[in-house]
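Good morning,

Both structures are done.
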Amino acid sequence: MSGRILASEQLMSFSSIIDTALTQQRELLYAPDQRKSDKPLRPFSVREVSHALKVKYNSLRQYLNTLEGMPAGTLESGNRKYFTAEEIAEIQAVLHREGKIGDERFPRRNPGDAQARLVVYNLKGGVSKTSLSVNLAQFLALRGYRILAVDLDPQASFSDMFDIQADLDGQASIYDVLRYADPASGEGPIPITDAIQATYVPNIDIVPGSMSMTEFEYETSASFRAGDGTPFHRRIADALEQVDGYYDLVLFDTPPHMSFAVIAAVFAATGMLIPLSAGMLDVVSLAKFLELAASTMQVVEQHQDKRYDFIRFVLTRYSASDPAQLQLSSFLRTHLGGAMLKHDFVSSTAIADAGNTMNPLLELDPGSFHRKTYDRIFDSLSGIADEVDSEIMRAWGRKPFEREDN
């Protein structure tokens, strides 16, 4: 029949149309820069710095004026001083050196501290997993954590948020690190150091995602018959040994489906954060997901006595003004107790706008939002970061620092 279409050609045509349109949209959005990463991360006010470093505002102002080695910052409108993320790291180092903050507010590993590895994990889509991962990474990086993000999702949305597109730019990705050797071509996996890219956010490096990760699943299935190479569940953990001394935290963003790569991340991780949307259907599917996750862990535990430092749930897309969601939150906290984070990832127009412009919250100008709108989502994400920070500190044998009012 003459009216029928060849699906592969039509779908590829649509793909090209969307790619071209998105490129044009990005150029318009970030003009006069060509790409988002051409522009540095915005500077932060003294109050924002005091919050990030958990130091009282008035105390920080005094330290900035009296301690040797403090960066000067930049005076902007209203005679207010602002600091770049790099300068915030300098401030933190001076405060630690001078004994103004202890190790509980200086998130660097001491000798004997294991590298923290957090897998953000849920097999259900639409739970704001990537949005949570990206924002959490930036909040923790601003607090001083040296972070390596590993994007295991073939859609590579996490990488996109940092303006890294391995497939389009012909760059190495997590697939190149995990792949199996090809006897025909002689090609094999590359060191993870060859795939790591710095981002425009200080303290965050990334191993980008790629559509090629679908090939890893096929290769792994074939490896069971051939019996070649490192077992699939150890490939991520073994790759990370090369960079164990360079990062305090490795954060895995995972796809919303079970895969060999997800199992490998679960094997490598020391902590797990499970995002859960505030909807009854999501809660109904939670039991099934947890059963499957338990089965996955049983597979992992056959190879190693695997122990986690923590497993926590976080409610996402939450609106306390919705009676049904409020009731659902109460239900979960009653039954899961302390396993639920105290802070929820709230539903917010600021996050919706951030998603549309591909900007996490800390890249947005607070002045472009109603103050209460910005403060509400900032407090939400900051609280989640506080709780994850506390879990890591406990794993390192440190007493978490309780934030004081400014």
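Second structure follows.
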Amino acid sequence: MRTEPVTTCDMNINSIVRRLPNGYDTQRCHPTTRIQSSKRLTSLATTNDSDTLFSMAPRFHRVVRKTRRDESEISPCIKYLMFSFNILFWILGFMIAAIGIYAWIEKDTFDNFGRLTMGGTLFFDPALLFVLVGIFMFFIGFAGCVGSLRENTCLLLFFSFSLAVIFFAQLAFGTLVFIYREKVKNEGEKQLMIMIQSYRDDPDLQNMIDWIQRHWLHCCGVNNYRNWESNTYFNCSSKLVGSIEACGVPSSCCRLEYFHNNKQCGFGTLEPSAVTQMIYTEGCLPKASQWFERHILPVAIVIVILTVLQILSICFAQNLRNDILAQKAKWTWHTHPMMHYYRN
């Protein structure tokens, strides 16, 4: 039984028909006809006209997918190293700020602002210093932690920019201190005298001064122990109001071997004929200079380590940000008319 030839080309247009010896007809379509047929199939596919394209076939739905061309550009080592470091920095900043806020509330915040306006002791309030440093660390740690984990380029830019500002501010401060060291020394001495005058007014300041005099530098006053005469409570004129601390110095000025046996060893030491062998007579400012001269190497090592950590953090943040931008640039939208179809 003879079978009719099955073709996909028009037998009358641009086609060549050849009869084989076995009686079957073969048809070779002209290339122009092939192109027209391909365009027809493509147009049917892009218009979702699947009934016309395949009358017995199920319907096809177009799918647009976001694909990557090759491997990820983002280094997981840098990403999670940034995350681990900054989450610790974030938690530490939160704890420091919480301690400072709690201490400040306990001391009456509005009184602190009043002393700031009158005496200018803002920068030497330990509680306020904790609050400012803690809040700054909290926001920087948050930006670095979330920015690295969520691959957020804006947060990473804020993190690196903040660290860069801190780094250059420290560099400028150190340069200015070295150039104007005499002026800085005089200004520091002036601020330390304000701290002595406010000794009894701020419990946190009092604890800090006691720690410096008793445990760290083993000193008394700014330049010598007689600087305590500028404090109202220790001035000899306080005898008129019956102050037991008049003409004396704080107990933190007492030498350790005398302090354990007599907590009032500093009383009366500002009298002209008083014996001062039980207290430290050298001031804290010269003692601090001596301490830094003896520990110049450890101090320099700490400064170098902090500087390197800041520079590495800036470099890692910028490197991670550039990797994220490079990865986003490699994402493309593929919308080929026949590649991304699926059946019901």
